[in-house]
Structure to design on (650 residues):
């Protein structure tokens, strides 16, 4: 089996590559060929015995998409894209990379007539306030960012290309990924990870919103699990509605802090400093608090059961089991 | 006021032009300039005293959109597009005209920095079965045709360009337009008009589905009214969700026939011949039967109250008040 991963140098991309190399198979078939592309050079993983190519490519450039699929991948994990904040700041870049890049990939697939599976990472940013208390699977997409708009458009394209028989698509709407490894970033959602990651590493973290703010999270490990699981679904299981909201742990910030205290102790939890930030509060107030994700759960997608589990996954996967107590 | 109409040679386009010329004003402002474009040459209406241009243009051709808006229209009615059947048969043409043409128009508007009102005709084809009994305003868009996909994508673009302040958009999802004037066509929905139009003209009409089939209709006159009304709405009235399902008369085919009998007599209604067609039955079964259209009604959009009114509008507007009894 030949697998292509776009956005392979990103956080989820790297973890997906590592998981596929470790598993050695997908849907019961041996992986003998990996193609990794990204706008920055993806690293080749250690320990993979099959053919592997890692190349720098922007799918929105002419010919790039056709080249990316020239060796006929059976499964494509399409993760490439610019993130929410960047798509909002740079309107043209967001549409070029997130919409035109995806469309170029779909068009190249149509032209090549090879019908691969295409797993596309969408986002809960496709939803826009006002919301009902919990977002049902049939809730409309009225995004309030250009990023969310681009993801929603790509979902529609993926569904139409699937319906027409050009490929077999699955779109998965990822909740906020928490705990994100690495350095703090400027994303408005950054604190959801920061208030866990920094205290576990012995550092202070700022909490800009009230303890009552509710949000839905899944670990990077769960996100990789969603991608793998999506690749195993059949057309019959999916039916015509191939874009799915993923499950996650819905909890308040206060519950996140309580979980940190339970898992790592009072001293770690005390490293969170409350410093209200009105701008962040306003942005976060427009986000989905809870998703039913009933279809995804019924189809066997699994997120963590509790936020404690999300913290433990971070400690195992990123900190080698060690915390700075 | 300068008004641009794309798709001005189409059925709704011609009726909209005639109405604007008759009214002489829009939103209380005198219309002193009309620009009409279409892929076939639009006719210049009689009796308009202002400046008028009618030109042949395909917005998806390079430079066409910039040229179309070069004289800075205040209001743009964007009706241009290929119809459902054609977009399904010719995949590339559908995406080129319906998606790329619309995006080119929006991009030209963004580049020109002139913030016009843009009234876009979307369609109930943005919905795809399975449905609830009546489609609520917040129901998801899961189209089952490439045409519906293209309309849904354009709605998303229109909303994002509006949110970003590049223009002031309103998308109106038209129900099936009935009674369509002119000759019978091959559209699967054609019989909804045919069973009224042909008998009123003294001709036999075939009815391929059962009397129990339910569907939602609005007259061409009502559709023009929706467009005019949409142009008068303020951003504050619309809020962030600028794409609206339009109201219509939801009735069964049997109720259509009863209305024809009431309005035109038994002899006219007897010209309908039942000839079941399984293919048409299957296609129609995937269509929306009823739409809440609550937001549109609350915003003052008005359709006919009964199917009798729809028939009467046809007799007045197309037959000069005369029927072949």
């Amino acid at each position: 089996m030949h697998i292509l991963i776009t956005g392979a140098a990103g956080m989820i991309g790297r973890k997906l590559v590592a998981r596929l190399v470790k598993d050695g198979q997908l849907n019961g078939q041996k992986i003998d060929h990996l193609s990794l592309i990204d706008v920055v050079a993806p690293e080749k993983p250690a320990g993979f015995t099959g053919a592997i190519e890692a190349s720098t490519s922007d799918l929105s450039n002419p010919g790039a998409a056709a080249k990316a699929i020239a060796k006929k991948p059976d499964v494509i994990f399409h993760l490439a894209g610019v993130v929410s904040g960047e798509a909002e700041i740079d309107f043209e870049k967001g549409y070029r990379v997130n919409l035109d890049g995806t469309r170029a990939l779909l068009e190249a697939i149509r032209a090549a007539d090879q019908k691969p599976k295409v797993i596309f990472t969408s986002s809960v940013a496709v939803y826009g306030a006002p919301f009902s208390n919990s977002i049902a699977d049939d809730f409309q997409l009225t995004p309030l960012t250009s990023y969310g708009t681009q993801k929603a458009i790509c979902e529609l394209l993926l569904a139409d290309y699937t319906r027409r028989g050009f490929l077999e698509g699955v779109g998965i709407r990822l909740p906020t990924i928490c705990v994100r490894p690495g350095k703090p970033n400027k994303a408005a959602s950054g604190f959801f990870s920061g208030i866990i990651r920094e205290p576990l590493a012995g550092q202070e973290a700022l909490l800009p919103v009230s303890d009552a703010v509710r949000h839905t999270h899944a670990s990077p490990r769960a996100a990789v699990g969603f991608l793998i699981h999506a690749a195993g679904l059949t057309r019959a299981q999916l039916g015509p509605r191939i874009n799915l909201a993923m499950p996650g742990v819905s909890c308040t910030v206060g519950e996140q802090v309580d979980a940190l205290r339970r898992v790592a102790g009072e001293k770690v939890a005390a490293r969170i400093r409350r410093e209200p930030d009105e701008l962040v509060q306003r942005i976060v107030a427009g986000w989905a608090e809870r998703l039913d994700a009933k279809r995804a759960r019924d189809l066997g997608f699994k997120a963590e059961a509790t936020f404690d589990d999300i913290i433990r996954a971070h400690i195992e996967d990123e900190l080698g089991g060690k915390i700075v107590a």
Observations:
- Chain B touches chain A at residues 91, 128, 137-144, 146, 149, 152-153, 156-157, 159-160, 163-164, 240-241 (CB under 8 Å).
- DSSP finds 13 helices and 14 strands in chain B.
- The domain at 2-174+219-245 of chain B is CATH 3.40.50.720 (Rossmann fold).
- The two ends of chain B are 45 Å apart (CA to CA).
